[in-house]
Amino acid sequence: MKIPSFYFGASKKNMDKSVIEKEKEEFREAHWVLKNASSKQFYEFCFDMDGFSNIKIKNIENLEETGLVFESDKISGIPAAANVYNLTIEFYHTGDPKNLEIKKIQLFVNANPKDLWKNIPADKNADFYKPDEASFKGKFSDKKIVIASKRGRSHAHEGKFREDDFSVLELPSGWNIISISDGAGSAKLAREGSRVAVNSINHFFNSYQIIKEVDENIQELYSSDTSCEIESVSRQNILRLLYQGTLSAYQSLEKIATENNLSVNDLNATLIFALVKKFSFGYVILTFGVGDCPINLINSDFSKVQLLNTMDVGEFSGGTRFITMKEIFSEKIVSRFGITCVDNFSHLVLMTDGIYDAKFATENKLEDLESWKTFFNDLSGNNDDQAQVDFTNDIEIEQQLLDWSDFWSRGNHDDRTLAIIY
């Protein structure tokens, strides 16, 4: 018996329909778990369509209330609020594009860890009031500088003050100075200690006579025809002036303590500073550090990084040292000063431990080039908040650095101060 040809056509059509229904069902029943999101943090999830080559997702209902968007098999965006969202995937089979099917999924958006911390303003009527944050941008020698200082979450949660401080100043004869201080959390007026420390050191060097003497000794130190003896004397003279500057900072803190019936330990604070000037033979950078705040210099082509100050970590079992400690003014203080001369540099970076602990963690990473590349990639926007600091189009760079400084780092909630000369 001859079977009519139309019979095979009908059989093939029925078979195709069953395959389509089977593939739809397999996709509908596939167990998909979307990774959890966090509110106010960038989120991205790509649907794995391997094995479902004939299935196309057309739309995801209820997604708009999450603050996310769907495009090219990917959900992305910044979810606004923590919640459990019931989503409906609308899909179709390429062999049956007119009939939409649905698949139910859930998206869990966790609370942003930042939102779990209170942000209580510090008391403006309190003695030695200090704003919760501060920033600065401007010229520094023939380069630029940007600084941001933000109160840490641990202080904001309790309505306490920002204890970090900074001061930047253009000095006579083309010199510039940037100083940063981190007030000790255990000192009841650390916020004033850090303020006095940075302002007093800048004030000391804001003297034509002192800067003139620094200049003269720098010229002799780097003169091509200077004898070894004169070079040694010039170096000692520079170190003496740096010593006198740091001693003046200590004396200023002692004076404030006496005037307010305080112990100088009530003002405990670290101190780092960098004096910079461009000469015909290169940039001279004079540095000092006491405490656990680093000063780093990155060369022009970003192939080398130097730590320019002694860090008070390890040797003291994690305990830091302060400019308020008279014992640091001993013979060993010479090791805290640095005299550096380079043809050029790309960045000079100073920071408090609120940045250093979160982004570098250990002292050895401060001289690890890959760690610094990661750090600047982070500044460029490669972070959970997509916060970007634009060093090229730097019109709003100080606000950008403040915003970036609000990053989340588990267990690291101290004040954060970062200065970058670029």
Automatic annotation (TrEMBL):
SUPFAM superfamilies: PP2C-like. This is Protein phosphatase 2C domain-containing protein. Residues 151-387 form the PPM-type phosphatase domain. It holds the Pfam family PP2C_2. It comes from the Bacteria. Transmembrane segments: none annotated. It comes from Chryseobacterium lactis.
